[in-house]
What does this fold into?
Amino acid sequence: MNVPFIDLKAQYETIKEEINAAVHNVLQSCAFAGGPYVEQFEEHFADYCNCRHAIGVGSGTEALWLTLLALGVGKGDEVITVPNTFIATAEAISFCGASPVFVDIDASTCNMAPHLMENAVTDKTRAVIPVHLYGQTADMDPIREAARKHNLYVIEDACQAHGAEYKGKKAGSLGNAGCFSFYPGKNLGAYGEAGAVVTNDDGLDERIRYLRDHGQPQKYHHRLIGWNARMDGIQGAVLTVKLNFLDQWNALRRQNAALYKRLLDEADGVVLPEEAEHRKHVYHLFPIRQPYRDVLMSDLKAKDIHCAIHYPLPIHLQDAYKHLGLKPGVFPATEKAAEEVLSLPMFPELTEPMIEHVCNEIKKWEEYGIQAALAK
Ligand SMILES: *Cc1c(COP(=O)(O)O)cnc(C)c1O
It folds into this structure.
């Protein structure tokens, strides 16, 4: 049985008519760059996140970058984040001229270890970007507390956490701003590139709106030096349709996660992802941990079961960041996770027989394959 890592086609098949009609409307009205379909999505997405504003942009990377710029973060400033995230979190910091300062993660959730955050604060620190990795929010209360104490902005990287909750509040509504990606494979995915910032801060909303559209409050009148970071009209229309299904899809992801957990419970060498206290996990990914991860991954691939690694090389060990001078060993929890995590197939349309098949193969591998792995 072939089990893909993700299946965007399967999802499209379930919403084809609505999507085709929505795209057709955009084609008919030629509202391609920004415009009414983007505005409609912004309204719905702000409501969904319980925030006053949502600003549609071209990607999650731009959402992070423009938020930092709009908050005035720049040269000489430091921004705290984690080294086990997608590179975009750090790139956004670097691209506005500031430096990322990393803190290690909590081994059980793979999110920022709040008790380590304060050690990273200096007199140059302006903001902290907790990443809600894999679909689960970081532990926001102690992070916000430390941020308040040191007068730092809190920007959530919610690119993997559409619909996730912390103490009953939506990801994105927990800091000064929340940044989302609608890359096709995300829990809420566009049919192309897209992103958004949500915020309750009217001034921040206004500055990001200027920045994403050449700094112009009025066409050809430029108040700031901005950029072209608008969302496409087609993406706004597609996302408006898909937002209606997000809760349903997240519920299916949670159901799939529960089945994986039940079936893998007795697999000794496998550590399962946990839903931490006060959180609603939306399982963008389902990363297990296995010390012989690489062998397990290739053995599963040979059986047509497709997994992925998030992430194989922490940011502080990437060539792009070697100027920071951080050596292996500085962030032990992150580095251990990078060696052990394995994301199993996870998407709403994943079927029960597929999950059963994956789990059976993992259990078989634990009996026989692990011996081969040990012998290598
Ligand atoms: C996907 C992602 C981003 C970047 O989003 P893009 O839309 O691809 O630019 C940033 N941070 C995290 C944690 C992500 O998963």
About this structure: The pocket of pyridoxal-5'-phosphate is lined by residues 59-61, 85-86, 88-89, 131, 157, 159-160, 181, 183, 195 (CB under 6 Å). The chain has two domains: 8-243, 246-375. The first helix runs from residue 8 to 29.
